[in-house]
């Protein structure tokens, strides 16, 4: 795909295209920024542009070389990602073995290391010399959400290319263009860190179901009719939804924040915009400080899950507090 098809990231695209145009391509780049901001898509577009037989500073997307990258079978492109929880030294050794052979097309070889911040110390040390002096002409792209956790020596040997979070309006428009209903899109954009993350979330069968359940539990708990705990037991822990309690607490956090947005007349910021009538009924039943306290309780409940507190107990305590 051409660079123009990548949303936002004007600075990153300008750096890379200028390098291609002026034949000053670096030997190693560090794509740093929040997950889901388009780093992998940009890395693959850069690889296409390097191999492309039609354009100098972009990918035509149509020549044989571009299509090989698209189909994941270009012989001069090597992709590395964590095996389990980390990138291991054997993966870097295999990269070095593959790169001991010359490129087939006369262009530099390209390797992309996704989640490079998950390299073991041994893997990172093994990469160091190879990064600076590959046996054949090569371009490295390291992708890292947390670039500061990389070895300082690796950071110093790479050219940093910054990626910024995409503006929510841009992501909402892109999702709308793909036919995603606005209520689901607004929720996904508020929970995921980038467009790809939004799409992954929206593809999960449980996501829309969880959103509906949060709305039902919110009505029942804030209405103080005492049925929320029973509903949660039936709908969550007897189905697969119970595996996604962190998302439930995140959605509740957004729901409470919507109450504040309504009180402060910031309707454009409301996530559950399709529930505006309901929000208008509930928003004034609590003070601003009470809604903030609910938001904090949702965040605390999510934190408890990470410390392996019993999930059902955690949710029941949360709902009972809302009903009190």
TrEMBL record:
InterPro entries: DNA_pol_HolB, DNA_Rep/Repair_Clamp_Loader, P-loop_NTPase
CDD domains: AAA (cd00009)
Alphabetic keyword roster: Nucleotidyltransferase, Transferase
Pfam families cross-referenced by the UniProt entry: DNA_pol3_delta2
MF annotations from Gene Ontology: 3'-5' exonuclease activity; DNA-directed DNA polymerase activity
EC number(s) from the headed UniProt entry: 2.7.7.7
Superkingdom per UniProt: Bacteria
Root EC class: transferase
GO BP term (any one): DNA-templated DNA replication
Keyword Nucleotidyltransferase on entry: yes
PANTHER family the record matches: DNA POLYMERASE III SUBUNIT DELTA, REPLICATION FACTOR C / DNA POLYMERASE III GAMMA-TAU SUBUNIT
Protein's recorded name: DNA polymerase III subunit delta
């Amino acid at each position: 795909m051409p660079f123009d098809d990548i949303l936002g990231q004007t600075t990153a695209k300008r750096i890379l295209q200028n390098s291609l145009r002026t034949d000053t391509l670096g030997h190693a780049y560090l794509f740093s920024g929040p997950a889901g901001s388009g780093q992998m898509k940009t890395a693959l577009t850069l690889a296409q542009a390097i191999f492309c037989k039609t354009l100098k500073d972009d990918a035509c997307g149509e020549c044989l070389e571009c299509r090989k990258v698209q189909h994941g079978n270009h012989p001069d492109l090597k992709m590395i990602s964590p095996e389990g929880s980390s990138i291991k030294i054997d993966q870097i050794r295999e990269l070095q073995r593959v790169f001991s052979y010359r490129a087939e097309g006369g262009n530099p070889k390209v390797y992309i290391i996704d989640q490079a911040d998950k390299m073991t110390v041994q893997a990172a040390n093994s990469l160091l010399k190879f990064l600076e002096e590959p046996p054949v002409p090569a371009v490295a792209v390291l992708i890292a959400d947390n670039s500061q956790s990389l070895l300082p020596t690796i950071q110093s040997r790479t050219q940093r290319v910054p990626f910024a979070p995409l503006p929510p309006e841009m992501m909402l428009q892109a999702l709308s263009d793909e036919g995603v209903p606005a209520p689901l899109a607004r929720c996904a954009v508020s929970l995921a860190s980038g467009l790809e993350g939004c799409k992954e979330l929206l593809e999960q069968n449980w996501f829309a179901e969880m959103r509906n359940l949060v709305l039902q539990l919110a009505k029942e708990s804030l209405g103080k009719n005492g049925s929320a705990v029973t509903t949660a037991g039936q709908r969550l822990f007897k189905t697969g939804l119970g595996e996604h309690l962190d998302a439930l607490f995140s959605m509740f956090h957004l729901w409470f924040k919507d109450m504040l947005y309504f009180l402060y007349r910031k309707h454009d910021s409301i996530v559950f915009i399709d529930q505006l009538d309901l929000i208008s009924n509930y928003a004034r039943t609590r003070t601003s400080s009470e809604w903030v306290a609910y938001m904090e309780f949702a965040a605390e409940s999510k934190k408890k899950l990470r410390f392996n507190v019993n999930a059902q107990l955690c949710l029941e305590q949360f709902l009972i507090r809302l009903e009190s």
